[in-house]
Amino acid sequence: MADPYVLEELSNFLSVSARPDLKASALQYVVGLTSSADGIQLLQSHAKLPEALVALTQDTDDKTSSDAFKCVVNLTAHIVDGGESTNTFASDKKLLSILLKTVVDKSNFNSDNACKVLTNITRVPAGCRHVMEVLQEQDFPVKLVTLVETFGTKDYNSKNSNLDYLGTVLSNLTQLPEGREFVLDKDRCVIQRLLPYIHYQGSGVRRRGIVAALRNCCFETDYHDWLLSEAVDILPHLLLPLAGPEELTEEEMEGMPEDLQYLDEDKKRETNKDIKKMLIEAVMKLCATKSGRKVVQDKRTYIIMREYHQWEKEPSLMQPCEDLIQILIGDEPEPGMENLQEVTIPDKIAKSLENTS
Question: pLDDT tens digits for 292-321?
């Protein structure tokens, strides 16, 4: 373990104005420390070092700025809500401004690293709140709409940064009411722009981030009728990754969205466990209101989920699937209880599903 005095001396060389060779050596030493939990804890105990690393992310030397970003990525990976590192990084408006500007800089090769740091910071509510505050500052040039436009522009970054983790940042921001409100703004068409990424095969990270964002938005029951209407038509997008190549009868497909009918015999289902769980949860949330349940039921969602249930082998996904099926085939709740929040499926129903044909 490094001597605290050594780290104090080290901070003198971690500055933009330091001699390049000394700066490079000091930074490599710090990079090594961020690879262990003990090293990270030690670095976090020295307030000058995180501040110096933030400054070095803007160094004119590409290797130096890249290594500084790697250190910040590793340090913020250990953020816990209310923890010391949250106070150090998540509340550092200078760092947050740097990160957001780096993400939207088309010619910055550190954009992906900036996305990863923002992902770590926004993972906890405190960090998420601080990032949103920066985005909402009147004179700050980067807004939430800027992030969405950046995310949705093909080959946005000319330095081979793919910005996939920006999807995770957006999903984390939808933990906040104003984040969900922005995505669900009927005049902005944000959610319509995000829907295609549910099926994006180029990156599981990008796909997972957007599915998480959409799942979060489905908690807003006041928007369910709009989400299920032709204006958005979210249901087929959520169900298509869960649908397989099984041949269905004309009767079974009657009323089913066209995108879910006559699927190719080589149709593949989503393979990521977390994504599948969030898709099921999103459909479940759309069933929370009576009007939403009727649309989901009328679109023959039960047929898709029945086939999915027979195909799925992951034990942790069976209960969510069975809970949704029970809502789809069960009796309507009694008057005054139409808004469902939690549904517990009876054991006898779960057993009967195993024999569903």
Answer: 999 999 999 999 999 999 999 999 999 999
Question: What global pTM score does this model have?
Answer: 0.89
Which stretches does DSSP call E strand in 115-256? none
Report which DSSP code applies to 242.
G
Residue 138 is classified by DSSP as T
Q: Phi, psi at residue 155, to the nearest 5°?
A: 55, 40
- Of the candidates 164, 175, 156, 251, the one whose C-alpha atom is nearest the C-alpha of residue 208 is 164
The per-residue pLDDT for range 121-144, each reduced to its tens digit, is: 999 899 999 999 999 999 999 999
Per the CB < 8 A criterion, the answer to whether 72 and 57 are in contact is yes
CA nearest to 191, candidates 171, 161, 208, 168? 171
Cα(15)–Cα(68) distance, integer angstroms: 11
Q: How far is CA 77 from CA 14, 90, 120, 123, in A?
A: 21, 12, 5, 9
User: What SS3 state is found at 168?
Assistant: helix
b/e 320-344 (16+ beta carbons within 10 angstroms → b): bbbbbbbbbeeeeeeeeeeebeeee
**Contact status, residue 319 vs residue 345, Cβ threshold 8 Å:** yes
